Predict the structure.
Amino acid sequence: MRKSEREVVESSRLITRRVLMLGVIQAGIVSALGLKLRSMQIEHADEYRMLSDGNSIKIRLLPPARGLILDRNGTIIAGNEQNYRVTLTREEAGDISAVIARLRRIIPMSDRQAADILEEIRKRSAVTPVLVADRLSWDEFSSIALNAPALPGVTPESGLSRSYPRAGDFAHVLGYVGPVSDYDLSKIENPDPVLRLPEFQLGKVGLEAKMEEALRGKAGARRVEVNSAGREMRELSRQEGQQGATVQTTLDAELQNFTSQRLGSESAAAVVLDVTNGDIVAICSSPTFDPNKFVRGISAPDYRALMEHDHRPLADKTVQGVYPPGSTFKMVTMLAGLEAGVITPGTRFYCPGYVQVAGRRFHCWSRGGHGMIDAVHSLEHSCDVYYYELAQRVGIDRIAAMARKLGIGVRHDLPMSAIAEGIAPDRAWKRARYDQEWQIGDSLNASIGQGYVLASPLQLAVMTARVATGRAVAPRLVRAIDGQAEAVPDWPELDINPLHLRTARAGMDAVMNSSRGTARRARILAAEWRMAGKTGTSQVRNITAAERARGVISNDQLPWNRRDHALFVCFAPYEMPRYAVSVVVEHGGGGSAVAAPIARDILLFALAGGLPPLTAYPEAERAKVQEIWSRMSLTPSARKGEGRARA
Amino acid sequence: MGYLNYHVVQVPTGWRKILHLNWPLVFLITAVSCIGFLMLYSVSGGDIDRWAGPQMERFAIGMVAMFALSFVPIWFWRSISVVSYVICVLLLILVELMGHVGMGAQRWLVLGPIRIQPSELTKVAFVLTLAAYYDWLPVEKVSRPLWVLIPVILILLPTGLVLMQPDLGTSIMLIAGGGIVMFAAGVSLWYFGAVIAIVVAGVTAVMESRGTDWQLLHEYQFKRIDTFLDPGSDPLGAGYNIAQAQIALGSGGWSGRGFMQGTQSRLNFLPEKHTDFIFTSLAEEFGFVGAFSLLMLYVLILGFCMYSALTNRDRFASLLTIGIAGTFFLYFSINMATVMGMLPAKGSPLPLVSYGGTSLMILLMAFGIVQSAHVHRPRS
């Protein structure tokens, strides 16, 4: 169809008009776009630039290396080891099954583990690194690094992890570290952001927990550029963290090791104090456990075994455990009597084997009685009646006051977990606790460390140290922090007549060294290490009158958990006391037979600075001692040049 | 104009046509495409094989197609316009029946080794048809209701099919593109006023329909509208893209962060950085200078097309040039407005720059038709 010229012209004019209108509209829209561009890129550029930087620059914390814990000689008892681990990132790996199959040629991995890891990787985002294996040997680690081209997405990493080179020796006193739990975080106000790092370890119990702040150190930081998925692209700057403080303890690794070995599989506790300064040289609870297992994540069966063990390996019996101190408490009663002026060292009481008080008969352990007996001999023979008589005259309040003066029923502040206060009972205590009046029978029981009296092995050691020195020695566990020695306080005098203390010490000496002393067999022969001590056997059950009439059943015939606790406290050398030791063997039977030899061996090891010459032992004991030594597997001495701090 | 006219008026023939091409347009298109290659190279982190390379290949093929099409006499396009329209409608029906689902909508049609988006083809084909219609219709009849109804139906038929995919963006694009042709053809302004009034009423109805049984849009489309109205409401969800795009764009500042230095795009904060959001990468790396320059290049392309349309006395050629240029304008202005947060995100590419084979090739072919109109314009 041909168009006429007129039509063409009209059409052109119409189109021109409309195109110009369109042009105006389009110009308007383009102007709007240009203005918006200008507003965003020129006027508000700074705001957007800030948002953009905030998007892509992130601060990543560098976990600080945990402070080392040393023994008194500088041996590392809690250190850090390199933990070599391997992570896998799906995005980079491509075919993860193939990569894992190749990885399994280097790292042994069960089918189950491999399946679990695959599952985990599939669950996580493609750019999140998933832990495939940790605690690799150096050989495995380096061969993975070497084979990196065949293992896309596999990243070998190394980090520090806590390690306890002395395994179980220090398990209770040091405690252990573990991954930070939500519960841990909930307990801390304003938690340090480093705690939220996935691999971070926090002190859970013991010194590790109590000195967490000093040991933790300061986190470093890296400024990194990340992409939208949070994957690091490059590092912009780096500020190294600061390792936690090195804590030097008062403990002696070798003595601790010996003590631990000597206690063996008994359910027992031992504390060794340096009476001159209060240093805890060894503090051992037995049986023990390997804290490294907790750091690495203990397996369920292992944990169950620890929980179900009737000797309670996880409990720290040295400070958490409290026991009736039995006859080891007699020094307290005696000193209370002497100080109150109720008796003099020469005052004698008659022991017919029992006393009749308030219609009840209180027996001496010796049914035949000890006859006329004075202070020193009452300790030597551990005569109960002497203390029954004394208790009636001096009263419980003064006994309790003396107990507290000597460190029983008082909480000793140490960086350890769940330190028990024990009980030094008096009238007020019983009213508050049971809402009952104090009975005279309670006093009699308390006078020989039974009844309501409870003391921890630590408190018994403190008591012994105070009797030995006459000073208010308090235990301490930290010797220096970062090389800065903790000051040793000038322990004040106890305000006890030195003559009275000497009487108590003489009694303890007689226990060991007189011809009829109850613990004579456990004495030290070497004159320069002459030892004084006191046995204790505390009942864990009541002996009824009917039982007594039939004859008390010997411990051997009772089930383990109903046998008496065996206790022993001692110090040496007698003339110039250096160490005080307390030993409690739960359900061990008699103090003199079970606890005393252990205490003696520990004391001798401490005094000799290693295994003592056999001549230090009475001849009759030497064969037995040798036999005990041969069964021990002591960690070889490694004082000099043992692996120093790894930064 | 019919075949016979070409024997009457002086029109270049054979290889001499190459001299009469709209060369400034060719250079502008090439320049914009080169900016696209550069940006695709940049957002891939320097990996030419990822996007820039394939894009260059398609550009080369597209350019060849453009030249080939520009040699085709203009009457051919008018002759096939109705046929191409029918084919496109059939393809749209086919895609509805057996299309490939992508991004929550059916858009792809897989025919052996070729994947085609019929909606892309439709954009060109129905512009041809409308231009042919108004070329055929006597000028004095264009505003008569019956003669207005026919092109409206021609527009609404494919639009309805595209909307069923559902692809709201392309549907709007089709309506707007058709509207431009009708507007240029001289349809009375009263009709446009009426349509705008109806649209306003319709939008209100759509928004009101949300949450009722007769909900007119998908929930994700409603969400995009929400996000548009208040991008802060969901910064990590649907609003994330827009917020990140705006950060990228704004942080470019006057001169940008430098080639391949854009942190937003390089670090993957930008979504779809190689397709719908490529303008933000450009704005981030080359700043206002770069972004505004691209805008000006687009305006120049538009201007040369419009000038070509104004000087072309063939009504069909003139209208189809306006239709194609108008669609091109809609493309880039909607994309830019979207990434700058002036319109709801609806997934439209930046013409010639965004990665995408089909749209690039079809656009170049459309420009080929524009060139054909230019080359074969009647001369007296």
Summary: Chain A touches chain B at residues 1-3, 7-8, 10-12, 14-19, 21-23, 26, 29-30, 32-34, 36-38, 40-42, 44-45, 47-49, 51-53, 55-56, 225-229, 233 (CB under 8 Å). The CA atoms of residues 276 and 578 of chain A lie 6 Å apart.
